[in-house]
Amino acid sequence: MKLETLWCVIDPTPMSEIGDVFFGATPERLAHIITGMSMVRSRAHLVGSLSVYTTSEEARADAETRLAKRDGGQ
Q1: End-to-end CA distance of the chain
Q2: Mean pLDDT of the chain
Q3: 3-state SS of 28-52?
Q4: CA dihedral over 28, 30, 35, 36, signed as positive or negative
Q5: What DSSP letter does each residue of 14-28 carry, written as one string?
Q6: Cys-Cys crosslink for 5: which of 13, 24, 42, 56, Cβ 3.0 to 4.6 Å?
Q7: Structure confidence by residue, pLDDT tens digits, 20-53
Q8: How far, in Å, CA of 33 to CA of 21, rounded?
Q9: Pairing of strands 6-9, 22-25
Q10: Could you give the maximum distance between any two Cα atoms of the chain, in Å?
Q11: CB within 8 A of 1, min separation 6: which ones?
Q12: What CA dihedral angle connects 12, 8, 43 and 70, to 10 degrees?
C-alpha cells in the first residue's frame, strides 16, 4: 500500500488557525518540509512538534486538541 498523502500537525502560535497547524503532504513534500524546518533556526522547534498521521481524521483531532490547549481548554 502506497500512501499518497500524509497528514501533518504542528504546534500552534498565538495567531494560528486550523489550516496553519493541520495540512496534507506527499511523502516527498514532507521530507522537504522537515529539512527546511530544521535548517531555519527560527522554525527548528517545529520539527519537534510535528506529528504525522495516515488519516486526516486523526490529524484534525490532534490539531483541534492543540488549538484548544493553546486557548486554555482541554
Answers
A1: 35
A2: 86
A3: HHHHHHHHHHHHCHHHHHHHHHCEE
A4: positive
A5: TT--HHHHEEEE-HH
A6: 24
A7: 999 999 999 888 887 776 566 556 556 568 899 9
A8: 13
A9: antiparallel
A10: 40
A11: none
A12: 10
Give the containing element (helix H, strand E) for 59: helix 56-70
**Residues 9 and 63 sit within 8 Å (Cβ to Cβ):** yes
Give the span between the Cα atoms of 4 and 14, in whole angstroms.
31
Q: Are 18 and 69 in contact (CB under 8 A)?
A: no
- Which pLDDT value is given to residue 33? 80
Q: CB–CB of 37/44 below 8 Å? A: yes
The residue type at 73:
G
> In this structure, how many other beta carbons lie within 10 angstroms of the beta carbon of residue 12?
20
Ramachandran bin of 13, using left for φ above 0, alpha for ψ from -120 to 50, beta for the remaining angles: beta
The residue type at 69: K
